[in-house]
Design a protein that fits this description.
The chain is an alpha+beta fold and about 180 residues long. Helices cover about 35% and strands about 30% of the residues.
C-alpha cells in the first residue's frame, strides 16, 4: 500500500494564477463542477486569485499543496461563512492527483477550519447527481444526504439534479478522526 500524500492548505498568493488558469481549463478536472466555464483566460485567473485572497467577504478559498508538487494542485472553498444554514464547501482537485486521497484530506482540513476557526454549526454541499466520487468522499467524512433538487441545471442539453449533503461537527470529527491527528 502506498503512503498517503502529504496535503496542506494555504491562502492564495498572486503567483498562483497560472495554476488556477490550468485547473479551470482542464475539462477532466472541471467536468463535475456545477458551474461550467466555456473558457478561462489568464487575466480571469489573475482576477479570481485577487478575489480569493480577499478576507473582507464571507468566502474563503484555500490552495491545496501536495508534497512533491511545485504548484498548488487545486483549491477548496467555504462559501457563505455567515449563512444561518452554514457555509457551503467547494473543491476542485487537479487531475494529476485525483484518486490519491488528496481531495479527502484537503476537504477534511477545510471543514475543520469551518468548525474550529469560523464557528460553523454545520457545512453543506451541492453535488451533481452524477458525481459519485464526490458523494463517496463526503460520506467518508461523516456527511449525510439531505435531499435532491431534481432537474436543477442543464449541461449539453441534458438536465441533471443536485444532491444536498451536510455534516455537523460531531459527525465530521467521528468520521475524520484518522485525518485530524
Amino acid at each position: 500500500m502506498s503512503e498517503a500524500p502529504q496535503v496542506s492548505l494555504r491562502r492564495f498568493v498572486p503567483g498562483d494564477a497560472a495554476a488556477v488558469h490550468r485547473w479551470f481549463n482542464n475539462q477532466r478536472a472541471t467536468q463535475t463542477l456545477v458551474v461550467q466555464r466555456p473558457s478561462f483566460t489568464l487575466e480571469e485567473a489573475q482576477a479570481w486569485v485577487v478575489r480569493a485572497m480577499d478576507d473582507a467577504g464571507e468566502d474563503r478559498k484555500y490552495a491545496i499543496l501536495v508534497e512533491g508538487h511545485a504548484e498548488p494542485v487545486g483549491f477548496t472553498a467555504l462559501y457563505g461563512l455567515s449563512r444561518d444554514g452554514g457555509p457551503e464547501l467547494g473543491a476542485l482537485i487537479g487531475d494529476e492527483v485525483r484518486r490519491s486521497g488528496v481531495g479527502r484530506r484537503a476537504e477534511a482540513q477545510t471543514i475543520a477550519r469551518a468548525f474550529d476557526e469560523h464557528g460553523a454549526h454545520r457545512v453543506y454541499g451541492e453535488i451533481p447527481t452524477f458525481n459519485e466520487a464526490a458523494k463517496r468522499t463526503v460520506a467518508s467524512l461523516g456527511w449525510s444526504y439531505v435531499e435532491t433538487l431534481a432537474d436543477h441545471d442543464e449541461r449539453g442539453g441534458d438536465r441533471f439534479g443536485l444532491e444536498i449533503w451536510a455534516v455537523t461537527p460531531e459527525d465530521f470529527r467521528a468520521a475524520a478522526a484518522d485525518l485530524l491527528g
